[in-house]
Amino acid sequence: MSDDKKVARFPRPAPAPSADPIPARILHKREFLTRVAHQVNVPRAQIREVVEATLEQLGSAIADGETLALPPFGKARVSRQRTTKGGEVLILRLRRKGAAEAQRDAAE
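Given the sequence above, the corresponding structure tokens read:
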């Protein structure tokens, strides 16, 4: 490179430290079934079939590229996807209402 074509290179600033969200906790299907059964006061065995069918339909809708609009869960859609050796990776974008909006909708 000649001197007249040199471009000043400045080091990139270090990324600002981000406050990570709550550390990842995994909710397994067994615990999910227990929570749902407790909430609706129905034996877990009876809840299992309904929850599994619900999860299957959610998975199918996501795989088909449908946007899920499921209040109070939120609105979810696939924003990116790729196929890897281990399977398919889907990146979902989930939009949830703020606390004030959710309370207002619940009151209606």
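Helices lie at 29-40, 44-63, 99-107. Try to locate this feature in the token string yourself.
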